[in-house]
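User: structure tokens for this one?
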Amino acid sequence: MNTTPTTEFGQIAVLVKVGEHKVGARIGGAGAPIILFHSLLADGSSFDPLARLLAATHRVVILDLPGFGNSDRVEGGLEAVADRLAAAIREFNYTQAPIFLGNGYGGFVALLTAIRHPDLAGKLVLADCGAVFSEAGRAAFKGMSAGAAANGLAGIADVAMRRLFSLDFQAANPALIARRRERFLEVDPQTFHAACAALSTLDLRADLNSVTVPVLVLVGEHDEATPPPMSVELAEGLPHATLTVLSGCAHVPQLQQPDQFMAAIADFISPA
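Assistant:
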């Protein structure tokens, strides 16, 4: 495992080798481990405001999902993504089962990783995801992929920002939106198309009953990318889940309202 010091709340940048491939991460803080899985439309930096809060009490690991940042692309769908990340997480050799916290696409990946590797996570925090998309949701991923194929990621950047944030929030936070747009345009196109294809067919409903660890399901009340009914269905399908709706938030509540997000998860992630 190669490490490079960084300055953000004492983080170090890490490259974990999984066979011939690498998985990048940033690690900071001390305490019980919590591993963060980012959205498709917002990379690991979308967790930075929350990570600063988490680092006071936890060992925080911000993953680059395969095909993002310093992580190599993976072939084979979300199952292969989950398996690559599970292998990387095992390399950290934590003596305490980590908490998985996923947002959007990262929530689906975190859930699938826990399903396929049931010994790995001690708890799950699943923000703005679900078990399956509606037909309209599936069509939206196919449409975004087709638009990106025709016009590049820049051609769908406005759509991507609209899925992340309400128009009112965008108007009030132009600098943040500009940064998020820049990050979105850095996404590997092949990874983006593969993720859209996987999410447009994914259905984890039959596997939810196998998740025996405690789960906190969160959703922004204004989330248009993964609307609240998806989180309601997810929480109802999991054996040990509770649901919290975050007022005033959309698809990336940990970036939009980090203090509210932290307050919503604080009791759940506290060591027993």
